[in-house]
Amino acid sequence: MPPIDESQIRIILLDIEGTTTPINFVYQTLFPYASRKLKSFLQEHAQDPEIQSSIQELRGQREADERNGLEPPAWQDHPEEARLRSSVAFGQWLIARDSKCTPLKTLQGKIWQHGFTGGELSGEVYPDVPIAFERWRRQKRMICIYSSGSVLAQQNLFRTTASGDLTPYITAFFDTRVGAKSEVESYKKIAASLSYEPKQFLFISDAPKEVEAARSAGMQAILCERDPESSSSRCQSDAIHSFDGLIPD
Ligand SMILES: [Mg+2]
Q1: Residue 143 and residue 114: Cα distance in Å, rounded?
Q2: If you ran DSSP here, which 8-state letter would residue 16 be given?
């Protein structure tokens, strides 16, 4: 356990992927779901102006990718049916490449939203997470989330876990609208927006760069290694492997 000053900590700020939730949830559940549903989703919402502009943005992204020497699938604008087919093929190509481009993120977010509200998707957290949430709430500590997934996606995930709706435990959700997770400034902004001093936060993430950035902003921070055996890096001696025992009663 790394040396942390528990008495100072008022807010526990958590990363999601690789920290509260297995990375596999994203790659083996969410991405394949979006890829599988992309065609029917675009068909059903073809007349929606937001979807039309996402398709337009996809087309622009494809041109940029081609200019940059990549080989995206061909694109045909006419007839309408071909345009739809092109959007689906290109969208799936982007998903397979783990693209973070905005039109894809927008579409994925909407597709997942349907899946979560319709009950086809449910959020996943490690079993020690709800137990820790309960413990930290009992201690009157706040729990906040900072993840690169959109706030909407974060809320959907925590609302639909096997342990029930965990959103009532969470005071605030932050996404990359406050800035990138590897930037010091983002952590300063989060602290300022909650009117607490950085040292009153404990940030937990599986990404050393993020832990580093939070520390540089003055936060206390710990690296979380959920699967130390598969980790290629040497085991970090000051990392935690679960939330069990972290700030005990
Ligand atoms: Mg992470």
Answers
A1: 26
A2: -
- Backbone angle region of 218, left / alpha / beta, with phi > 0 → left and psi within -120 to 50 → alpha: left
Give per-residue pLDDT as tens, 133-188: 999 999 999 999 999 888 888 999 999 999 999 999 999 999 988 999 999 999 99
Domain covering 27-117, topology: 1.10.720
Cα 16 to ligand 1 centre (Å): 6
201 Cβ neighbours under 8 A, 6+ residues apart: 9, 10, 11, 12, 13, 187, 190, 191, 214, 219, 220
User: Does the domain made of 6-21+123-223 have the CATH classification 3.40.50.1000?
Assistant: yes
Residues in the chain: 249
Total Cβ atoms within 10 A of residue 217: 21
Show the tokens assigned to 115.
């899946």
Q: How far is the CA of 25 from the centre of ligand 1 (A)?
A: 12
Rounded to the nearest angstrom, the distance between the alpha carbon of 206 and the centre of ligand 1 is 5
